[in-house]
Each structure stands twice: as C-alpha cells, then as structure tokens.
Amino acid sequence: LSKVAQRSRRFHGHLAEVASGLPPAQMPRYAIMGLGAMWLELSSFFFLLRAFSPTGFTTAVATYPYIVLAGDLPLSFSGVGVREGVAALLLSPYAVPSGAAVDAALLWFVFGILFPAVLGIAWLVVEKLKPRFAEGFSNRTTTIPEVFQTAPLPTDERGAWLRNRALSFALGGEASAPPFGPPGKGIVR
After folding, report:
1. pLDDT tens per residue across span 34-93
2. CB neighbours (10 Å) of residue 70?
3. Coil, strand, or helix at residue 180?
4. Rounded Cα gap, residues 175 and 86, in angstroms
C-alpha cells in the first residue's frame, strides 16, 4: 500500500508541475469555447430531432450524451450505424418514432462531422496547391509562336484580320467577329 501511495504522490507532483506550466488565463477561455461547442451540437441535434418529430428539449438533453458516447465506440466508421441504433433505442420511450430518431442522428452526423470534414479536406488541398499555381503563373512568359513570326504579312483587310485573330487565339485571347462581309463586299460598317 505504501508503494501505491508513493507513486500517487509522484504522479500528482508531475501533474502539478505540468499544470503550473500552462497559462492560467487561457484555461477559462478554452472551457467556455468547449461548453459553447457542446451546446451548439446539442441544439443542432434538438432542432434536427424536432424537424422529424415533435419533442421537447429535455428529451434531447436526456439522450444526447449517451448517443454521443455510442458514436464514439470503435465499432464502425465514425460510429455510423451504432449512433443511429442507439438513438432509435433511447428515443423510443419518449414517443419518438425510430425512423425520426435514425434520420435525426444520421443528419446530425452529416452536418456535424462529414460535411465539415469534406470542407476541411478541400481547404487543405487548395492551400497545398496555391503555391504551385502562384509559381506557375508568375514565371509564365507570353511569346508569339514561330509560325506567326515568319508568316508573310497580308496585304488586304481580310488577311490582316485573320492574322490578328490567329495571334490573339495563340496568346489566349478571345475570338471576335470579322469586320468584313463576304469576299468582294468590303468592310461592313
């Protein structure tokens, strides 16, 4: 028994040492943020549940912690299926149909976990590719292809327009309508 007491004192000493290294002013802020996130999740679950079945807020408060814990069990991918089954089981005594409970729990997963995860992955991919695109566009130089540099200069207006259009297209510009009509009709004004 004395060895257990010594280890416990040593553990508490190490824990106190680590706790003293943390900035005390930040801890209340993080606690408030954590409670706010929990209440936001709880209210989103309540409103999703309310969309499928008329139920009170106390029903959501009474079942929410157990549904969250069931979703955290490592039995399936992110608790899908387990969370919905437990929601159907726990909400049945509150006269919530099992279909409404499963729908609310599944949509809660989609809106609270899946959708933010997909957005986060997309954001990370964009952030990773941003330097490549910025580097690729800054080093890009525009040159006229050799074909157009050695082409003979046209003498009539139709040839000049065709040459300018070809240059514009080669440099990434937009095509424009010809300023002339059929052959022999001259310039259309």
Report:
1. 899 999 989 999 999 999 989 889 998 999 989 988 888 888 887 888 889 999 999 999
2. 19
3. strand
4. 62
Residue appearing with tokens 């929990």: 38
Structure tokens at 141: 């130089």
- Residue written as tokens 């209210």? 43
**Would the pTM of this model clear 0.70, i.e. be above it?**
no
In tens, the pLDDT along 85-126 reads 999 999 999 989 999 999 999 998 898 888 989 999 999 998
What does each C-alpha distance from 165 to 171, 175, 182, 186 come to in angstroms?
Answer: 10, 6, 17, 18
CA atoms of 58 and 50, how far apart (whole Å): 12
Taking the C-alpha atoms of residue 140 and residue 120, their distance in angstroms, rounded to an integer, is 31
Judge whether 160 and 154 are in contact, CB under 8 Å: yes
User: Tokens 């437990």 belong to which residue?
Assistant: 86
Q: Write the single-letter amino acid at 118.
A: V
Give the tokens for residue 161.
């327009």
d(C-alpha 89, C-alpha 104), whole Å? 13
DSSP 73: S
Give the type of residue at 85: G
Amino acid at 32: I
